[in-house]
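User: I'm writing a tutorial on reading structure tokens. Could you give me a worked example: one chain, its sequence, then its tokens, then a sentence or two explaining what the tokens reveal?
Assistant: Sure. Here is the example chain.
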Amino acid sequence: MIEKLLCKLFGHKYFVIKRFSPASRKVGCWRCHKQWGMNDRVKAFVPWDSELQEHYMEREV
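And here are its predicted structure tokens:
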């Protein structure tokens, strides 16, 4: 609970969970444990959900 408040006040503590390509990766926050998908080519930073999971897991096979 306090971690979420710290993130709201001071911002997230990001780390890379998995790199899919030089331009795309899955990132998370050490404090609140939320996860996002990042893509530098289209300047996207979106919450990680089942749709992103499905899209990137298809590419690994």
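What the tokens reveal: Residues 2-60 form one domain. The longest strand covers residues 14-19.
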